[in-house]
Amino acid sequence: MDKTNLINKKQLFGDLDFNSILNNPDFKEDSVREVIILPILYHLGYSQENIVRSKTLHDPFLKVGSNKKIAIRLVPDYCLKVENNYAWVLDAKAPNQRITDIDHIAQVYSYSYHSEIRSTYFALCNGLEFILYRVQATNEPVLQFYIDEIEHHWDELNMFLSPASFQVGKNITYDNNSVTSKQSDKFDYKNRPLLEEIPVRKQQVRRHFGVHGYFTKQTWNVVADYIKNYSKPGDMILDPFGGSGITAVEALMNNRKAISIDINPMAVFIVNALIAPVNLNELANAFLRVKNEYLAKEPKTKEEISRTLKKHPYPQGFALPKGSDVDTVEQLFTDKQLSELALLKSVIIKEPNVNIKNSLLLAFSSTVNKHNLTFHYTKSDGGGDSAAFRYYRYRIAPDPGHMPLFQIYETKFKKIVAAKREMIYHINEKTVQNVTILKASATNLKWIPKESIDYIYTDPPYGKKIPYLDLSVMWNAWLDLEVTQEDYDQEAIEGGENHKSKEDYNCLISQSIKEMYRVLKFDRWLSFVFAHKDPEFWHLIIETAENCGFEYIGAVAQKNGQTSFKKRQNPFTVLSGQLIINFRKVRKPRAILKANLGMDIAEIVMQTIEGIIAKNSGATLEQINDELIIKGLELGFLDLLKKEYTDLTPLLMSSFDYDETTDKFTIKKDTKFQTHIDVRLRIRYYLLSYLTRKGREGINPHFDEIILAILPLLKNGITPEHQTILSVLEDIAQHVADDCWKLKKADGQLKLKI
Predict the structure, then answer these.
(1) In this structure, are residues 242 and 435 in contact, taking their beta carbons and an 8 Å threshold?
(2) Between the N and C ends of the chain, which has fewer C-beta atoms within 10 Å?
(3) How far apart are CA 522 and CA 450, in angstroms?
(4) Are 144 and 174 in contact (CB under 8 A)?
(5) Which one-letter DSSP state was computed for residue 34?
(6) Which residues in 313-324 are b (16+ Cβ under 10 Å) and which e?
(7) Are 469 and 496 in contact (CB under 8 A)?
(8) What residues have CB less than 8 Å from 749, skipping those under 6 apart?
(9) CA distance 521 to 175
């Protein structure tokens, strides 16, 4: 076997943390060259003399005035030589630059096409992604992947770009899925690490940001990292609460297959239209046809508006949910807005190609978001949001604003084209068959075979936070998408127009977890995203998952990007972050043990709050909530927590100071910590929590690591000596090799002694 087949990420880049690259101000273009690109080139088989750096190309010139000629200096970062000819050109970009931007592609194409180079391929790399084009076919890449998954693509990379690939007579097949890395055969599903919190890169890609609004969206790079951690290329990924399709799209972008389902037809339409393969030139031509016809017929006078409304259908009589400022959908628009939207839609739906028509309708639906009386403009040029997304109700804006319809539509269309161009290598006519997007209920997945799914990442509704179907009425009405009473019955929410009870919600969520267990393969993972304040819901998830047969492995706090308007308006009732609970389906699951803590729930809660405040010099509501939920999960006292503390806000406001500028709670001024329990018991509490978590990760920590982990939590009172911690540690844990420790069990239950 060729040694290149055995390449892995550690061989190439050591212990480089790819999540830290984007937020490291010192990791710039030169770092990409030295840390990322050079190891790849050397392992591909290029020697120093065949790597030509910063070659200046002199041929082109710009003529100024009648006589003067100014030379244009083209300087590609790398020109790779094979047998004294230039085989390919590679240009480095900084991690915060998109290598799919048309200007960057055109720049490197100009290098490769230059008379001094005349290479077969050109490539771009920003340290996070790698993209390769054939000079004679620049409409889509021949290879594109994320650097942190390079081992899965090494055979393809080697096939295209190694020096041996350019010998005369070499037969190269340009098939996106033709090569499967042998590394993938060694993927260990059972022993995957829990991910730490991932830096958010919310607006770094065009396939999600700016295409179409939705009520909640997972951060694309967080979803992508989870998919890559818990699955391998070719695996089937499921999201039974698919929403706007982040999971499905990122699965395809990372060479997986996907199933995304949602009860909301608006969500299903958005995803299907986004990934619909189209010829971009034909799409552009269709847009011009729509533009010319619309502008020729655009209603401007009262008579034209009236005539248009009589000729072209628009939503009439669709009831809005209670709490809306008006009763029906058509009252959310002026007559002029209704006539313009009705005309535009009538022109679009005449397009014969279904994928092109749906792509144009996606831009139309995104335009509806902005061209109505509920759109609340901000001070930024054209910025703002529809009330349904901002306030979770149909609220007429004090000053709705009136941007020209086609100006909005053209902007939305350009964003959709940019999204499709960004996805074209991974999502096209050939690969789109690897995804299924369906309107269905997460409570009934009977059409998915038992044990056929490799990984589930899902973000379910959070109780009564958002009534998705109620709030989607405006879009579903314009898009002629039917919502049935059965859909409302199966929607996993609390409240809404159908007045769902907490018991209804609990039952639907429980049934969905049971279905997830049924379709997931053994030794595979479920990542369940949740951001609810009420411990009862967390207890429900854990109880249901364990009863099904899932084994809880660990929960991770994860930010989800910018603070929402809803969070700014309601700092104590809305959580801006979330927890990702990770389960594994195993044949002999271990249940969470309910530790005998030796103290009542009030002491546990107060100690946990004061501990996280001490550790972070002040803590946000999210940090406190996450810490309590994770401790409750790991130590098995969620059942107690749910009875006494469905809402932490009253306790926090009465017992701690709150700083509005930092959103942090701190110990009240001139007061001491309230929890004055025995130091050994506090040590036991934190040791038990820390070692439980490490045990679930399969790690036996060193004594020094244990000390560093729990000392910051013991700032109240006299800081204990290391010997005190060691004596407590010996009581609940056992010593293993190299001064490492793991919990010991007694009578099937972890004990805490006073």
Answers:
(1) no
(2) N
(3) 11
(4) no
(5) I
(6) ebbeebebbeeb
(7) yes
(8) 593, 594, 595, 596
(9) 29
Helices (H), 335-403: 335-348, 354-370, 387-390
pTM: 0.78
- Of the candidates 480, 491, 496, 490, the one whose C-alpha atom is nearest the C-alpha of residue 269 is 480
Residue positions counted in the chain: 754
The pLDDT of 118-126, averaged and rounded, is: 91
Of 217, 211, 163, give the one whose Cα is nearest residue 42.
163
Write down the pLDDT at residue 642: 73
For position 220, what pLDDT does the model report?
Answer: 93
Where do the domains of the chain lie, and which CATH numbers do they carry? 3-186 (3.90.1570.30), 220-275+427-591 (3.40.50.150), 280-423 (no CATH), 594-754 (no CATH)
Identify residue 117 by its one-letter amino acid code.
I
The lowest-confidence range among 31-45, 275-289, 325-339, 374-388 is 374-388
Three-state DSSP class for 584? strand
* CA-based nearest residue to 715, from 643, 748, 667: 667
In this structure, what token pair is assigned to residue 119? Answer: 């290479």
Residue 338: alpha-carbon gap to chain centroid: 35
Compute the distance between CA of residue 452 and CA of residue 466 in angstroms, rounded to an integer. Answer: 31
What mean pLDDT is predicted for residues 573-599?
75
Order the strands of the 656-659 sheet from edge to edge. Answer: 619-620, 664-667, 656-659
Tell me which long-range contacts 32-36 makes (C-beta under 8 A, separation of at least 24).
32/92, 32/93, 32/94, 32/95, 32/125, 32/126, 32/127, 33/77, 33/78, 33/92, 35/127, 36/125, 36/127, 36/147
Mean pLDDT calculated for residue range 66-78: 64
By the 8 A CB rule, do 661 and 618 touch? no
120 close to 135: Cβ distance less than 8 angstroms: yes
Residue pointed to by tokens 């919310």: 202
User: Which residue type is seen at 198?
Assistant: I
Q: Cα–Cα distances in Å, from 696 out to 192, 578, 590?
A: 11, 20, 10
First-to-last alpha carbon distance for the chain, in angstroms, is 61
What are the two backbone dihedrals, phi and then psi, of residue 74, each rounded to the nearest 5 degrees?
A: -100, 130
* Helix locations, 231-353, DSSP H: 246-253, 265-275, 280-297, 302-311, 335-348
Question: What pLDDT is recorded for position 380?
Answer: 59
Span 510-528, pLDDT tens digits: 999 999 999 999 999 999 9
Of 141, 220, 207, residue with least CA distance to 176:
141
In Å, how far are 441, 493, 518, 677 from 487, measured between CA atoms?
8, 12, 22, 52
Name the DSSP letter for residue 746: B
Distance from chain centroid for Cα 669 = 40
Structure tokens at 384: 């703002």
pLDDT, residue 533, reads 61
The answer to whether 386 touches 369, Cβ cutoff 8 Å, is yes
**Could you give the CA distance from residue 125 to residue 721 in angstroms, rounded to a whole number?**
51
Query: What is the C-alpha separation between 368 and 337, in angstroms, rounded?
Result: 9
At 672 the pLDDT is 66
Rounded CA separation 15/680 (Å)? 38
Confidence of residue 69 (pLDDT cuts 50, 70, 90): low
Helix orientation angle between 405-423 and 265-275, rounded to the nearest 10 degrees: 60
Considering 95-109, 167-181, 620-634, 685-699, the range whose residues carry the highest mean pLDDT is 95-109
The residue among 149, 97, 106 whose CA lies nearest residue 125 is 97
Beta bridge partners of 85: 82
Phi, psi at residue 612, to the nearest 5°? -70, -30
Q: What is the mean pLDDT of residues 104-110?
A: 89
**How far apart, in whole angstroms, are the C-alpha atoms of residue 613 and residue 449?**
47
Which amino acid type is present at position 515?
E
- As to burial, measured by CB atoms within 10 angstroms (0-12 exposed, 13-18 middle, 19+ buried), residue 540 is buried
Closest CA to 112 of 133, 83, 95: 133
Token pair 């509704």: residue: 461
pLDDT of residue 575: 46
